Amino acid sequence: MVTRSPWFLEEVGLPYRIHRVNISAGEQFKPDFLSISPNNKIPAIVDQQPVDGGAPISLFESGEILLYLAEKTGKLLSKGLRERAATLQWLFWQVAGFGPMLGQNHHFNHYAPQPVPYAIERYHLETKRLYGVLEAELQKHPYLGGDNYSIADIATYPWVVSHPRQRIDLADYPAVRNCQPDAVIRIKNLRLRTFIGIKEEEINNRQDVLINVVIHYPADKARNSEDIADALNYRTITKAIIRHVEDNRFALLEKLTQDVLDIVKEHAWVTYAEVEIDKLLALRYADSVSMTMSYRRD
To answer: What is the tens place of the pLDDT at every residue in 128-159?
Structure first.
């Protein structure tokens, strides 16, 4: 879940540069990175131009990064006492509960070397409880904490995108389900520099893009599948290469949207799909960047 910081930066139009940290190679343990993020986790940022005019400020932990950037820009966090308090309590709710518990859900369902039934059930039940809390709030307000979109929504929504892997059916949480299109539209209408790696300076640099289309099976389809891999993973992956990205930065997204719709149309059982895009060519302004777009069949 490292998309939240660049999502905010794109929303408010702050310039930035992405530096890739290769976790598989252990780069998060190198002294240079630890000096920025002592907890050896991503995301982390360095603000080269803090508002006090002093030396650069380094920050780690996504919640603190969002809060810092909101205060720096005066955007996506109300200055009013009550609305600010409501936004911050939902931001901290995500940081303290929603994110960590769903992370444990992911781990024991998909990454643990051996099944641990107690842990799987424990974190699934807690995930359902937390979705119930989220549902209750979104039944009362269009956004977390009130009527205005804020850093609390940016912090929370990326976890909701992965609901199939959490064994969560959004049909049980209609208010949460209905908030998804709004968030997806926001992602689509951002400048997409973060997600497909096209900066203003790069628009004329054609490049190859690797595309993974991840299609999630509904649970009943997976159970009835004759393919063991499908039954275990609830998804299939189709890879393709698009060569020579159009100069228009939105052309790639438009093509991928159609690709997803074509796949969904071909396979009537698909209830949810994601498009994951990774830039193959490391250009000057970003070493590695990615984008996720979701589709849900009503």
So the answer is: 999 999 999 999 999 999 999 999 999 998 89
Q: At what angle do helices 117-140 and 174-189 cross, to 10 degrees?
A: 80
Query: Residue 237: its pLDDT value, please?
Result: 38
pTM score: 0.66
Contact status, residue 292 vs residue 275, Cβ threshold 8 Å: yes
- Spatial distance between the Cα atoms of 142 and 243, rounded to a whole number of angstroms: 40
The CATH superfamily label for domain 4-73 reads Glutaredoxin (3.40.30.10)
Please give the CATH topology (third level) of the domain spanning 198-296: GTP Cyclohydrolase I, domain 2 (3.30.1130)
Contacts of 229 by beta carbon, 8 Å cutoff, 6+ apart: none
- For the domain bounded by 81-189, which CATH number is listed? 1.20.1050.10
- The domain segmentation of the chain, as residue ranges, is 4-73, 81-189, 198-296
Helix (H, G, I), strand (E, B) or coil at 279: strand
Quote the tokens at residue 194. 């973060």
User: Which tokens hold the place of 281?
Assistant: 């060519």
Q: What is the pLDDT of residues 256-283, one digit of tens each?
A: 555 555 554 554 444 444 444 443 332 3
